[in-house]
Design goal:
Chain A is mostly helical. Chain A has nine helices and no strands. Helix content of chain B is about 50%, strand content about 25%. In chain B, strands 1, 3, 4, 6, 8, 10, 12, 14, 16, 17, 19, 21, 22 and 24 form a 14-stranded parallel beta sheet that branches. Chain B has a seven-stranded parallel beta sheet with strand order 2-5-7-9-11-13-15, with no helix packed on it. The chains are: A mainly alpha, B alpha/beta.
Chain lengths: ~170, ~550
Amino acid sequence: MPADFDDLYQSHYRRVFGLCLRLLGHRTQAEDAAQETFVRAYRAFGRYDRSRPFAAWVLEIASNHCVDLIRRRSREDALAGDPEAELSALPADDAGALGALISAEQGSALRDAIDALPDRYRVPIVLAYYGDASYDDIAARMDITRNHVGVLLLRARQRLRQALTDQEAPDR
Amino acid sequence: MSCPPELILAQFVDRALAEADAAATADHVAGCDDCRVRVDGLRREASLLREALAGDVAVPVIPAFDPPLSTGAWTVALLITGAGAGLASTVPVSLTDWLPWSSRFDIWALGELLLTLVPWLMQRGGALMTIVIEVIAALAALGALFWLARRVGPWRRHPLLLALPLLLAIGAAMPVQALDLRRSDQGTIHVPAGETIADTLIAIGGSVEIDGDVEGDLIAAGERVVVRGRVGGQVFAAAETVAIEGVVGGGVIGAGGSLNISGEVAGSVVGFAETLQAGPGRIGRNLYGFGKTVQVAPGAGVAGNAVLFSRDATVSAPIGADVLGFAAELDLGSTVGGGVTAYAGRVLLLAPARVARDVTAFVPGDDRVTVSPGAEIGGELKVEIRAEEHAEEHDGVGGYVVLQLLRFTAAFLTGAVILALVPGLRRVQLDTVGQTLLSAGVGLVTLVAVPILALLTALTLIGLPLAVMGLVLWLAGLYLAKVVVGHYLGARILAAVSGEPKHFLVTLAVGLAVVIVAVNVPFIGGVASFLLTVVGLGLLVLFLWGAVRDRNRATAI
């Protein structure tokens, strides 16, 4: 094994594992997926364009692999549903709801809410805010249009706000 | 400008708007307090999401990274596998003689497979078979081992778990040996005349001779099985030589180098043998004969149908109902109560043949059916010219092109259905040398191991349906292999040409066209066909395995 690959492995493992864990929601699966990601990276290392940050490259491999796994898991070809239906299901803008997410003081509550999201909302949220992927990247990974990504992300946020509001309500 | 919806504002915050839209939104937000508040809120949401996601992924220990096997190691492993497979196939019939992997895929190839492989294995008896099976099992285990090492993450870290499939696979070969071990007396198992066994007899020995009476079934295996007495039930016999000279109240299912039925069998006879001879004697129901040579000898009689799969089939005794023959040469010289249907290279009706109804012959040419002057046909003689495998040589360029177009169409339709039903197959990857070699290795092992395992399973008789199913799936896999590889090749070619993914049917059409052309190139076409099939078969197996694994995992959550 080239020494520099081992260094990269050591320094990027946590990040890759984190992405896999957030995407797959299961520790053992995430460990497997992280290993598989580095195996793939290792095989393709010769073709890796050094001008590109290693993190971006390896996270792309990881997200591709995880999205594949999720797809097979859900046994559906299309990870995301129909964008039109999704768009029409958007509730009217509600500035007040914005507060819900922000007032969630504990990161863990938000994290749990993210983990509980259906695949099609969790995947873009994780890719965007953990994997630092652009809308275009997410669109490519999920095999959907860029606009659809925007809609899914917004729907995901709305669901999170809703989930956190519901959670807090009993305390009041 | 009216206030943009949240969808736009969120994209603005995520820097996902096109430049012009972003500028317009920025202008608006700068002049609109409402929107500025919302944008600030969305920004804080985004950063909270980032923080929340970044937290709590503590990995106490980074596991050691096991680099995958290098291509070199893989090549060596596959060379060993290949050499092993070669060893396993050190048979008088070379692999190419009996494996229907090439485009010459039809019932004839299947027939050939059975005709040559089964009797050969039977003839050499247990010892050699054990060796062959163990080699195959070891190869399968080796393949599984390498595959697991590469694919299955957690197992990679637990070498003991890796050893398990190896042991299991070798264990699979054990029943054959266990059969030897149980042969306590090593010699003859003899039921003398006058002795009556009221039950089913399971006899495994060097030689099994029944002169007495078995009232139940007889299950016998050995080098030689002879029934001179009486068996009330069914006879299941596997031996180098099986001879039924006495009386059997039920049917006979026999497999062996040679199988002779000269006694009276009240039921049907199903025989797999290099040489199968029925007669003199009587078969109360049907005869199903599979063998290199199948003969219904003079003095015999089959009350029902005779179904014959063989190279040379000779019928010299009366058949009560119909005759269905698949043979290179079918000779008929007796009375047939029904009709005769023959898929054959040549059909001979010799005097004193008397066929009560029609004779339908599917043969390569008009001159391949001979009805000698003394023979009689009650119905019509129908001769259907069957296109031979090398039809192109006979029919000229036109026929050749039509044949290839037919093949293309058939493969395309099959591929369209299967790729539509199983979309995952459109995504199979073969991008590295390692993946290709892996697929080829798995494909090769599948190619060799499945028919052998199926035959073994078939020998247990109970497993016969399983074996037939296995063989059918295997043959389907051989056909689908080229479809899958074709689609993959199409995708690669289109990606190289246009850079954009196309509809899978377009991809399939392009790929299949390339495959069909490749397998028709003189000299190297056969090799190309073989390689494509092996790689495709491996892809299919790996895909199925992956699907099963993921399904198990999904249910485990």
